[in-house]
Amino acid sequence: MTDQNPAENPFGDDFGWTAYIEATADREEPEHFLRCIDIVDGEDGTGRTVVDYGFGGGAQTRSFLRRGWTVFAVDVTPGAAAALLSRTPPDLRDRLTVEIGAFHEVDLPPTDLVYASFSLPFAGQALDAAVANAFAALTPEGVFFGNFFGHNDEWARDPILRTVDRTWIDRTFAEFSEVTVTETDADGPFGLEGDTKHWHFYFVEARR
Length: 208
Fold this sequence. Notes:
Blueprint: H1 17-24, H2 31-39, E1 49-53, H3 59-66, E2 70-75, H4 78-87, E3 96-100, E4 111-116, H5 127-137, E5 138-149, H6 166-172, E6 178-190, E7 195-207
Parallel strand pairs: 1-2, 1-4, 2-3, 4-5
Antiparallel strand pairs: 5-7, 6-7
């Protein structure tokens, strides 16, 4: 297990990531995580590696660890490492590597799965480089599972967020042998207080 020196958070200290990490550190496994486990037959991850892009509070990172995966967890928020490590049982830590840094700059190991749940769009203008970094790490039969925000999302005008369209999705994943894209463009729950926002995103399941 390694814990690199914290990188500067490009989104600023007031973006709310620290509060988000603490509030979601022990949340239940969301439906999209269970969908990912299903498509990669991941209930027994023994001998396989996953890159968890934007692990946040680390709840899903620990879910991978409990299923036997070796996890390379990446996040840009310095406080995320301490939150993850403090909540990870000692007997699971030998299969966990934590890196704090920008998605497009971190050196990734060869990986069977890239799991990027609501994280890559926050790479902003470095999105294409971050995706290329993830793709370069995938093994020949590796799987990418993650989402990208569309132009209709309520956050689309926020300068920290990079939105894309279906043409971008199709072009970016053209090299993959199997690609499934699910688009959501509707109001839905958001945040820790039961608020609602307009969501527009593409969930992508792609296999080399």
